[in-house]
Amino acid sequence: MKGSSLFLIGLLVVSGAVARPAQPPEGFTALFNGKDLAGWWGLATEDPAKWMALPPEELEAKKAASLKNIQKHWRVKNGELVNDGHGLYLSTEKNYADFELMLEYKTVARADSGVYLRGIPQVQIWDSTDPEKFKHDADKGSGGLWNNPKNQPGRDPLVLADKPFGQWNQLRIRMVGERVTVQLNGKLVVDHARLDNYFHRNLPMPRTGPIQLQTHGGKISWRNIFIREIDGEKANRILASKTWQDGDPIFDGKSSKGWKGAVKNHLFAEGTIQCIKGKGGTVFTEKEYADFAVQFEFKVPPGANNGLAIRYPGRGNPAYDGMCELQVLDNTSPKYTKLDKRQFHGSAYGMAAAHRGFQRTPGEWNFQTVEVRGSTITVELNGTVILDADLSAITEYMANKKHPGKDLAQGHFGFAGHNDPVAFRKILIKNLNHEK
What we know:
elongated; 2 domains; mainly beta; 26 strands; about 425 residues; Jelly Rolls
């Protein structure tokens, strides 16, 4: 073992009788072994982007230095983690992407605590009976994403689910992308809500980060802390199940029925639409749409390029003659390192840049939704919003080349093939004009 792990093993002495830790449920692993703090270190409320950027030797020194504070305020007793209400927060050494977390906690009157997800605050834990905290909505209970902006979904729990002091509370937290679902004592308190990036409100949640157990203002105990990492296939199923289901399937899974354009350059079979390698051109729906939302899965081979034709007029280049082309691209390919930032995946080509770092490995299926309302386009990739842009406000264009079609109010939806075998499946489209 290297670095801070050497300090963690045997850091704390177990006092009293040791309770046998519960066995993790199937598919889960234990974050706390019931004996010591192996696998944990100490953090305050700190921007993970900053400490993750430290050189390895500086990060190891930061971890090692935190342990003196941890030893002062944390102890292990009877198979439980116990904090005195002060000091640094316990943080996992390992960083997690998509996961499901289970734990139990027990606290005292007037205490305040929480669980940081990927190092970002937080799933709130506090005294829901303390009148002094009612002005902060404590009377609504624990489990909410309290650091979200007020009135944003998820900030306040859906129901009051706290148990009386002295009893153990059970938290179950699932995070896919920036979407968080929380159950407290078996009751749904947060339903697939986005967790706001507390440190950078204009940026998405980090793709990975640690689990942190926050504590301040009162003694709190933790036990039975288990985690299960969620792979891409399961994450896609979760995202699809939580997205609207009342859209229209625009692909029958076996033929080009309902599609126009370069259909001979695409394969329509076995549930996928795929550009034939070495071929290209835009295939698009026979129907036209004004305001709409579309959801689908896509798979990009290494180095591949494609695009989504938005409000396409049925002729010309969708990036210029249509409202826009939303890029579909392998962002990780070395051949694309010198692209303009408005050319990477999810970007409105040449106009508005999407956030990067949220694609799965090339060759894996990704889940994406696109919502078009008026001149605004929102793109959510694998549970994280990577683009939210009003194209009517765009005044600067890549290479100073204007996009005459960007103000189109209606058009076709399609795929702009660029000679690479990019595949699309499970495509649903929803006419948002029907909601008005």
